[in-house]
Amino acid sequence: MGRRTEPTAGARAPASGERRAAFRLGVSAEIRAAALLLAQGYGVVARRFRTPVGEIDLVARRGNELIFVEVKARDSLDDAAEAVTGRQRRRIIAAAEVWLARHPDDVTREVRFDVILVAPRRWPRHIRAAFET
User: Fold this and answer.
1) Is 18 within a domain?
2) Domain for residue 5, yes or no?
3) How many of the other CB atoms lie within 10 Å of CB of 124?
4) Could you tell me the residue range of the domain that residue 36 belongs to?
5) Is 33 part of a structural domain of the chain?
6) Kind and range of the H or E element at 22?
7) CB within 8 A of 99, min separation 6: which ones?
8) Angle at 85 between CA 31 and CA 70, to 5 degrees
9) For residue 19, what is the domain's CATH number?
10) The pairing of beta strand 110-118 with beta strand 65-73
């Protein structure tokens, strides 16, 4: 009668913990990516720009350039590169259209879609015009 039991919802704790760890990894990767962009002379104007159609990790400007950046963190840079899917690209492009609709001054800028790959104990890799075929 005095025995305490764990609630059944406790079985979900590892998934929640995994989600929190993934979130922290993503935030850390975005900070590293933003620092790289700042070092390259870009101004980061938005982080985690969310729309109903998708999210853009970073939006940055330098001169007449406007870049929409997807940040991918994995155990290796190659794994990070493989994690950018066609579906993600389409969602990022759709979210960029929302950005441009909300920021008409950016329409005249040179727009580009970049990817920054992040892995432990490695310098981030900036891939410019990553969505071009």
Assistant:
1) yes
2) no
3) 20
4) 13-127
5) yes
6) helix 13-39
7) 46, 49, 51, 56, 59, 68, 106
8) 20
9) 3.40.1350.10
10) parallel
Q: Which residues pair with 69 in a beta bridge?
A: 58, 114
pTM for the full predicted model: 0.83
Number of domains in the chain: 1
pLDDT tens for the chain, 133 residues long, are: 444 333 334 434 446 777 776 677 778 899 999 999 999 999 999 999 999 999 999 999 999 999 999 999 999 999 999 999 999 999 999 999 999 999 999 999 999 999 999 999 999 999 999 998 5
Report how far residue 26's alpha carbon sits from residue 32's, in angstroms, rounded to the nearest whole number. Answer: 10
Residue 74 included in any domain = yes
Tokens 């329409």 -> residue:
107
Place of tokens 């919802």: 9
